[in-house]
Amino acid sequence: MQRQTLELTGIGLxxxxxxxxxxxxxxxxxxxxxxxxxxxxxxxxxLLKQIAEMYPVSLHGVGxxxxxxxxxxxxxxxxxxxxxxxxxxxxxxEHLTWSxxxxxxxxxxxxxxxxxxxxxxFVDHVKEFQDKIGxxxxxxxxxxxxAFDDLDxxxxxxxxxxxxxxxxxxxxxxxxxxxxxxxxxYDPQAYIDSILVDGRVRQFHLAGYQINTxxxxxxxxxxxxxxxxxxxxxxxxxxALGRFxxxxxxxxxxxDIPALDVLIMExxxxxVVHQRVKGGFDxxxx
Amino acid sequence: xPALHSIQAAFMHDVxxxxxxxxxxxxxxxxxxxxxxxxxxxxxxxGLTDILAGAYPILQKIVGKGFFRTIAHHYIEIHxxxxxxxxxxxxxxxxxxxxxxxxxxxxxxSDMAAIEWAYFQAAIAADALVTDFNSLTNLISERPNFxxxxxxxxxxxDLRFNALEIWQGHQKKEIESITLFENPQTVxxxxxxxxxxxxxxxxxxxxxxxxxCQEGESFAKAMLHVGDRLQDVxxxxxxxxxxxxxxxxxxxxxx
Lengths: 286, 255
Hints:
A: alpha/beta, TIM Barrel, globular, B: Outer Surface Protein A, domain 3, three-stranded antiparallel β-sheet, 53% helix
């Protein structure tokens, strides 16, 4: 695969923006498409192919369920592989979550207990997936609303060992770190500090969250991707930029999707932060 | 710590039922484990309802968002998402509606759902090269036992009411009043070569041919079935030729 040099922040590719992005070239680093939205054929897939001819595209999976205990679905992998062959994405990414068990699926990303058995499942599944698609996958840290008991690893420890044993890369979602750190009461900067610095982090995600109140008055952060990026996420982003080199950034917005200009403006803010911290852009290769 | 299988089985049960059986596996030092589990239950309900709304926009328009949500929640109680491809969720909504008592005053909703599901599936079906009339004529003369395959986007919908008319009426900006009446018919739904989804009433003869093709029978055998009951040969030939020219068929060689 030909390597591409990218600099600018990317944005999530959403249906309302596709025509506009095809009409005139927007100033974005790359576009991230949710793989499952383009399974099969028809107009959406053809439009994605046209998009991929104009922009670098990253494929982000939401339905493979790498953490499921009962084995990956070969048909799902086949569909992703077919899309990869056609789109030739700059990145392929998935999540440190599960969403299927015993033939039942959910349209959500469910939390995994960071135990030895889950590690073995993840390592096997990441290796199997990478073998079948013939390239590295980036694994994204989840947003967590609850924690399991009797764990063998913290989340950063789990991610580090997963990279060491499977050869995957990491997609650090800064918004998810803020959400999980607030909900589970830990220090988000300490989380960043725990991720090893050796080129394993390849991409950052930024997004907005929502604050809800539980019945007892306790606040909880929800990963909605439906608002501008919060100041604390920007701060943690700056902190992460100070630690990791050659990492690309992507801004996500999935509900109450704003005009393309608004999304690009949010991405430009990330460019400004990046330049301020780094004194210029990293020339990232994907 | 119990096996991952046990945790995932309990958690999956909870996100579909709203129960809290997996709370025993959670960190006891964090408060509100039940409410926190509810977040995943609510996300599942919302996510699956959104998927249904995406597949059934006209149905939602007809019944309103509130009643559509009620329909969706009842549907989700008995139907789960069965693959990681969310576009496969919701195919039984038409059958579900025919038995869903609160929807009984609108007996045509089941027909509407069947049309919308076929439309949605046709739009996202895998691409395939269609056969043209010349290739087909050659195949008929050279290989009489060839199997004529349908484009993956082809669906048939058996309707009880004049629901196609109602569905078409809802495509317009200003919806005119349409009288509902029973009018059993079969509608063919498919995607043409320009990726436009088309809907068309078809005769029982053409449906018979298409079903035989779908079941993998040779073209010659499928035609024999049709021939048994064919009353207007010319009308059938025209209808078949139109189906060929509009991209309903691919042949076994994929060209």
